[in-house]
Design brief:
CATH topology: Bacillus phage protein
Strand content: 15-25%
Order of helices and strands: HHEEEHEEEH
Oligomer: single chain
Number of domains: 1
Distance between the termini: 26 Å
Number of helices: 4
Radius of gyration: 16 Å
CATH superfamily: Bacillus phage protein-like
Length: 143
């Protein structure tokens, strides 16, 4: 699953998702590993949607879409040069939270933003959008 696939999935849901947390953990923190599949069974520690398959069994994914503190860690991992903002309020009829990653320098441009009914999910989605925007900018600069 690509980062764009993860973003698309998160845009369609309004609930934290352990399986997506596993994909994010593997994409940014444990790149040598993969999310576990339902066909993976390993003794007493069987598959869970938030499992990551390692050589010696399963690891648990970081709960980025569940916990604001982990979502903040993801923001720092993806864009250590940015500040994050998270606000609660009725930004639209459907969403309670809005999140942004902004540049610290150079006019404080918005790098990524998102809305959701879950604070951690909004911040995670904003961080992933900032990552994609950074990658797209890097590719454009590299040509």
């Amino acid at each position: 699953m690509t980062i764009e696939d993860i973003i698309e999935t998160l845009e369609k849901t309004d609930m934290p998702d352990g399986r997506i947390d596993a994909f994010i953990t593997c994409a940014f923190l444990l790149k040598q590993l993969r999310p576990a599949d339902p066909s993976d069974f390993d003794g007493p520690h069987d598959y869970m949607p938030s499992s990551i398959k390692s050589q010696h069994g399963f690891l648990m994914a970081r709960p980025f879409t569940h916990d604001v503190n982990h979502a903040i860690d993801l923001c720092r991992e993806i864009r250590p040069d940015a500040v994050w903002h998270l606000a609660r309020g009725q930004a639209s009829d459907d969403c309670l939270y809005g999140a942004q990653l902004r540049e610290i320098e150079e006019g404080e441009n918005v790098l990524g933003e998102a809305e959701s009914n879950h604070a951690a999910l909004a911040l995670t989605l904003a961080a992933l959008r900032a990552h994609v925007r950074q990658q797209d900018g890097w590719k454009a600069d590299g040509l």
